[in-house]
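Changelog-linked ticket: GLP example.
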Amino acid sequence: MEVIICKDYAELSKKAAEIFTEQINNKPDSILGLATGSTPEGLYENLIQTYKAGKLTFKDITSFNLDEYYGLSGDDDQSYRYFMDQKLFNHVDINKDKTFVPDGLAKDINAFMDDYEKMIADKGGIDLQILGIGINGHIGFNEPSDSFSKKTSLVDLTPSTIEANSRFFDKYEDVPKKAISMGIGTIMRSRKIILMASGENKQDAIYGAVKGPISPKLSASVLQLHPDVTIIVDEAAGKKLL
Ligand code: GLP
């Protein structure tokens, strides 16, 4: 596990974008695992700028998103599909037919989740997975639990996650209480992982992920077992590691 502590959010976004760009330039048909949340927004902005400067193309990329709120349509402006379209896909030359985000309205949810896993495996697995982290240490929506989830599942969000995510919604009642999330097993099968975190409210989660015991109570701690993880934080999020 490599830990990079950057001065601030701008620097960490740039660093993550450099690793992404190198990945895509080395393997133009990479399978990318993408994340939502406020943390990767700067990364996506940097990638858009690099694309506009003619130094990057997404034309052969396939992407799989980590998670989606259960019950939201991709047209809903709170859905993660909408987020990805707005923050990245609409601004680059990616083929949207090759961008996959879990379907929050899937009729047969279990069949959908099995297919999602199978699709990732059939494409050869994820080359580079980007992760944010919740204040309780969750990655994707793998909330504190007694065991690590092996595959894409429907999860109940914890009160602290619902509270944290309520900042994006008009009313607390509107925040979905369930989500579809890649499992820890799915994430760990990625060949390379970057986890990004910014801000003081992530310092305990980051400390637990890097130094804490490996436990499903703080799901990011499992990354200590992965052979190729880079944790990129700003000084505020990395405070307890300094
Ligand atoms: C949500 C997402 C996670 C994300 C986390 C942190 O719970 N499911 O993938 O990492 O929020 O979000 P933020 O980056 O906005 O702090």
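Closing comment: Example verified and attached. Residues 35-39, 66-67, 132-134, 140-141, 161, 165 surround GLP (CB under 6 Å). Strands lie at 2-6, 31-34, 62-65, 67-69, 99-100, 128-131, 153-156, 178-181, 192-197, 229-234.
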